[in-house]
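Request from the bench team (R.T.):
"We need a structural guess for the complex before ordering more flavin-adenine dinucleotide. Sequence and SMILES attached. Just send the tokens back."

Command: build protein-flavin-adenine dinucleotide structure.
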Amino acid sequence: MSGWRTDVVVVGAGPTGLALAIGLRQYGVGVEVLEKEARGKREARAGIVWQRALEVLADLGCADALTAAGLSLREVEVFAQGQRVGAMPMRCRDTAFPHPLSIEQDAVERLLGDRLAAVGGGVRWSTEAVGLRLGSDGAEVDVRLPDGGTDTVRCGWVVGCEGSHSMVRKELGIPFEGARRPDLQCVQINARADWKQPYDPARSYFFLERGASLGVSPRPGGGYRFFCFRTDPDPSIRRPPGLREMRDLVAEATHEPGVRLWPTDPPWANRARFQDRVAGTLRAGRALLAGDSAHLWAPIGGHGLNTGLRGAHNLAWKLASVVQGRCPEGLLDTYTGEQRRTAHAVMREMRRNLLELPPTPASLRAVRALGPRLMATPAFARRISATLSDLAMGHAGSPLSQGGAGARLPDLPATVAGRRRSLHELLSYDRWTLLAAPGAPVDDERLAAVTGRYAIPVRTFRPRLDRGTERRLPAAALLLVRPDRHIGLAAHDLPALETYIRRWFVRKA
Ligand SMILES: Cc1cc2nc3c(=O)[nH]c(=O)nc-3n(C[C@H](O)[C@H](O)[C@H](O)COP(=O)(O)OP(=O)(O)OC[C@H]3O[C@@H](n4cnc5c(N)ncnc54)[C@H](O)[C@@H]3O)c2cc1C
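Reply to R.T.: structure attached below.
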């Protein structure tokens, strides 16, 4: 194995590392994924994939497999101190994935692993990255091999996707800014239940009590995930919760003293405490950070795995474009800025999440007084769904977003060359897409003359949007959409397009 060499080394085969490796392989980039464990996780971790992450997984070729393995969640019902507050649909518009998906993290990782194998990649299990040296045009990663021996992998780029204790981040001396989150713990267990609520595989629940929020989400294969965020009753307790502790907690939160639980097989249960942190930068020369090694928070709202997948999706096309000489290296700095802003935005939302934060007397009063009316208001339900789905998150403020662009392109219906299509059917993860408004003052030939000088493939379409939907897009003659479905440029004329392309694309040799 000596003299091992590849384009990119990905450290860690969690969801982030696997998704990144798939994206890179789809572009034809050589990747080695190193994983210190002998196999994937077997523990209760993330349990939900939100709509934006499902779009990401569609670009990575695994949304169908995940959807088939998970449960589509359609409604959430809320109770506060034993009283029903109301129920809300969980549904978003302008996407091919209107509902979130209930699925175990280990299933997500297994299906990502299958997809990685299908695109010619794989994981080197029991192979731990133990050291790192960066040069001006590459990196060396020292590894401990399954037989206990050591070796060095030489690569163009290394990406630390190895979770909160990231070796790459520590070796580079990048600060992990933030703090431990005091007085919060999450206990969870997967179990079948004998309780008052009828089993509905599309419905999840929240039961709010003073100091504890109990979420209940149906699991593929039957039963539920019971997870409870609560003020920490005893920070010294480390062991996973037993059945009795969880049963008592569920009985108290649901006001059902006779509730009974049977753990699923395997009996997944854990107790976790959290930190809220973001790495000072996600790039140092030829090294990058992604997923939990780049940002970490209490999984209130369930956005850790989801944000890792979205970050991997943002990074894979950029890194592939740089490795293949189609875009300048500076493109990678936009990943750092965009992903750090995203992490801070997710943390802000988490601190406002009234359903999952342990309720205070004031928040309980507010939920009980205002909840019934708000939850019955379609506009409110739409806003909550949009926030949780991550579909509304954009990259405004990034140097890659010009002319008021940055938002994710909504998947609106349109007519293209006489055929009914949706805008996302025109996009592809392996290229950029130029959408020219029907009245755009430039013909296809001139557009092709500009985009054709560059190594990055761009396809042009002239969609005609349905009446009334145009205002959901930036008012511009030309929209240049990135491979990851975000609008990079909203331009009124050809010179603006040329300026943008000149900055971010490399000319053909
Ligand atoms: C209790 C709990 C509940 C959660 N609930 C949710 C939720 O509902 N929704 C959600 O979105 N997120 C949730 N999360 C967060 C989610 O699990 C993480 O955000 C996600 O696992 C991050 O993925 P990752 O690939 O970045 O890192 P990880 O999943 O941590 O993967 C890192 C991998 O790197 C490997 N590794 C580490 N060091 C090395 C090394 N030196 N060499 C080689 N390999 C190495 C590790 O073995 C591991 O396999 C939860 C987390 C916890 C703890």
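Two things stood out. The mean pLDDT is 95. Residues 11-17, 34-37, 45-48, 105, 128-129, 161-163, 167, 186, 270, 272, 291-292, 299, 302-306, 308 surround flavin-adenine dinucleotide (CB under 6 Å).
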